[in-house]
Amino acid sequence: MTAPIRTRIAPSPTGQDLHIGNAYTALINYVVAKKAGGQFIIRIEDTDRTRLVEGSEQRILSSLEWLGIPHAKGPDIGGPYAPYRQSDRLISYRKYAEELVEKGHAYYCFCTSERLEEMRKGQEAEHKPPMYDGLCGTIDPSEAKERITKGERHVIRMRVPDQGVTVFTDLIRGEVSFENALIDDQVILKSDNFPTYHLGVVIDDHEMKITHIIRGEEWISSTPKHILLYQFFGWDIPNIAHVSVLRNPDRSKLSKRKNPVWVSDYKAKGYLPEAILNYLASLAWSYPDGRDVFSVEEMVSVFEIAQLKTSAPIFDVDKLRWMNGEYIRKMDDAGLMGALYAFDPEIPKNDEKMIRILPLVKERMKTLVEFRWLADFFYMKPSGYEKEVNPVLVGIAATALKKIANNWSHEEMEKAIREEAEKSKQKARDVFMDLRVKVTGKTVGPPLLESLEVLGFEETIARLTS
RNA sequence: GCCCCGUUCGUCUAGCGGCCUAGGACGGUUCCUUCUCAAGGAACAAAUCGCCGGUUCGAAUCCGGCACGGGGUACCA
Q: Is residue A350 within 8 Å of residue A336, measured between CB atoms?
């Protein structure tokens, strides 16, 4: 029997929250594991002590939970290969790095950052790839040991062969190969004793028996270093796949300067987790029968990783909005109400009027925030409007309605509105239009008749519709 | 600069050598429904399949070159 499939995401807690791109990678990892009845694991890569952001780890975990991507193992759950946080695993990294030194696959390096910088400048001037020149690789091991015992500051670098090629087969991109001569003698253990990402992932993935490494394409060029490391240790190389990165509309890598990137941003704007996941999935994968709206469960049942597109998609907020609207309209009233209460605590609970408003607003809203915009107009106090409700217009409408109630024909009504409009120097068409409120340039708000209904003008409506 | 990845409507995609006069979705436009908006329904516009060569009876689909876009090139991840 083959080993159970184990996938993972390894976010670093250096941002405000879970990046939407990481959410995408997490989704794919989750689906792959789930489909095979395996496990999806979270490991926190916090080896860069200088960029740590307080509370980030916790927010990453709760965003994942909010999205509905459950993990089987993680720093908050534990598991057989715990700890799931690199900073808690420290001792073993140095041991492994030194094992490589003994095998001759790595060496101690005492170069100062000044020398490194100078070297790089020189290489740049000569149009050569900036790489470590291997100076310390020639130091006699016993001499190196001596300098270390004397307390000299040092790092450990991997010794990359200068001949041959390193090849790996990407599950979604096929074979990728790199010339060893172009691979740098990467630092694997920093002078603060923390491993760099490269050493860290390889050891952790191996120790945690990760079978499929599925990560963003920005890692493709570091993969040969990892392959080499696996070979140095004599370990089996797991399956590897690189998913494409999400882009800004200008095709650059999705960044917070140009787009909201945190999952919490989307949560705050009233997007539903199911819609976000569905949208993310649709970016690089399409359901075999062509449907656009599908659940994670449905995706799991038919997903094949090789079907993932290799090109990098632009994150299109417009389409996300549409998707979100689809999900909102699919919800039943009670469910939507619950989502709204959770989203906005200021919305009055179990309120009779509120319950009557909901069905009207439901089919008009695309995100949860819009409920306020739509419902406030005739129910709650206006907030966030570009302009206030014009009381004059409300008066005009009231007059017009009175005439409608008198069984006037549409033509007569129209005439009446024109007359009323004339009095207030408004265009007739605008009288009705302006009964709703403009939000960010778009006219929103419920239609007159439905508003009347909610406001309790039953008698008027009855006459209107009879 | 060097290395790597990518390239089908504005955007996300279907397509796996003939079913493609390239299909769907978002967005746009128009129409229907409607007292308005939304939702729903219908339709239209929108892709010389990045370009140039090759293979083939036949190419969006296979091969090569080029162009363009992106990523990487740290004691960041």
A: no
Cβ-based neighbours of A145, under 8 Å, separated by 6 or more: none
The complex scores an ipTM of: 0.95
pLDDT at A454: 52
Q: Can you tell me the distance from the alpha carbon of A47 to that of A44, in angstroms, rounded to the nearest whole number?
A: 9
The CATH T-level fold of domain A6-86+246-307 is Rossmann fold (3.40.50)
Using C1' positions and the CA of A174, the closest nucleotide is B5
Q: What DSSP assignment string belongs to A260-282?
A: --BHHHHHHTT--HHHHHHHHHH
Written out in words, the top-level CATH class of the domain with range A89-243 is alpha beta
SS3 A307: helix
Q: Are the beta carbons of A431 and A420 closer than 8 angstroms? A: yes
* Nucleotide of closest approach to A44 (CA, C1'): B77
The predicted pLDDT at position A410 comes to 47
Give the Cα-Cα-Cα angle A409, A412, A413 (nearest 5 degrees).
85
Q: Per the residue annotation, which of A209, A253, A256, A415 is the catalytic one?
A: A256
pTM of the predicted model as reported, rounded to 2 decimal places: 0.86
Q: Do domains A6-86+246-307 and A89-243 have the same CATH topology?
A: yes
- Give the residues of chain A that fall short of pLDDT 70: 1-2, 352-353, 356, 373-466
Provide the phi-psi class of A68: left if phi over 0, else alpha when psi is between -120 and 50, else beta: left
How far, in Å, is the CA of A372 from the C1' of nucleotide B76? 42
Residue range A421-444, pLDDT digits in tens: 566 555 544 554 444 444 434 444
Q: Return the domain boundaries, chain A.
A: 6-86+246-307, 89-243, 391-465
